[in-house]
Amino acid sequence: MAIAKNIAESIEKSSWIRKMFEEGAKLKSKFGDGNVFDFSLGNPDIDPPAKFFDTLAALSVKKAPGTYGYMPNAGYPSVRKSIADQVSREFECDMPMDNIVMTCGAAGGLNIVLKTILNHGDNIIVSRPYFVEYGFYASNHGGQLKIADTNEDFSLNVEKIRDLIDDKTRAVLINSPNNPTGKIYSESEIIKLTSMLKSSGKDIYLISDEPYREIVYSGHKVPSILKHYPLSIVVNSYSKTLSIPGERIGYVAVSPLCNEIGLLMAGLILCNRILGFVNAPGLMQRIVSELGDVSVNVEAYRRRRDIFVSGLKSSGYKVPVPEGAFYIFCKSPIEDDVAFVKHLLKYNVLAVPGVGFGGPGYFRLAFCVSEDVIQRSLPKFKQAIEEL
Length: 388
What we know:
By secondary structure, the protein is an alpha/beta fold. The protein is built from 13 helices and 12 strands. The protein has helices spanning 5-13, 16-31, 50-60, 77-91, 105-117, 134-140, 158-164, 187-199, 261-274, 282-288, 298-314, 337-345, 371-387; strands spanning 37-38, 100-103, 123-128, 144-149, 169-175, 205-209, 232-237, 250-254, 327-331, 349-350, 352-353, 362-366.
């Protein structure tokens, strides 16, 4: 075989998001971009904030010796200090700079965390529906996922998580605001989850993947896990906060109360290097360190959410209203969500079946597209459900 068996198998199981993205390219080639309604990929279309470009312009002309050379694998000390100060404010904790590692986005952050903590055969508990790549990330480092059901409203079911804990459980991984549901896990849910983990008698990490932390609506706030649980690790990214997913910049922040914190940080820093990231992009590190309180225009996403949810509901769809992120996880009108997503293709509408997120019976719509695209798609959704 030309490639490794496990990679060949992974290709077969690979992301529904990418499959639909490729299907969209075919439709656009045939019908034109303006006649295809592509809600498949969470690629932010809102421009980065003006201050991003101002900072980029100012920093890009610096020519001091060593500006573009290697730096410590964890990142520039000055950047780590800036991010630590920001984390201290946002997460209501006292975060030292030594507990920050700058990473190649949240994906790079999750991979260095799992590489550091997993022994072969260990498991990570996630709640469904969940981001499609988590299984691949765990497999990269000899681990596997154990899947806990959520409640009907997609809130955490702590009892289901507790039932999956065994001697091989290394961590619980949560994602809030959630991709694909837009659900934000409340403070009471986090307290209940962390209380259960403390009483388990096991050293289980709680990892929170938070690339949508700043994209929240209607006064919602993402609670801090760092102030509730000593074995907590936050993985964050600026991809959505600043609309720069192609620049691959994020960080890992580890609770200062973690056991053997020195060894854990040494592991994360080593894995940042040996996984081939080496270090996070230097120019982007310097930029984000100056943009701590800056984010994209969340109000634009809120308007799109409201237009989409209202239009879908008026056509007869059952739509849980997302509290954050820029996804709608809509109930499929028929039991087979894959069949319904294929049905939508007849109307040049691209969605992603929920089964790809471990949530069969639903489909995901990414509303990081223009209001015009959303408005023009609504009659198509209506025609699709009426035909059924």
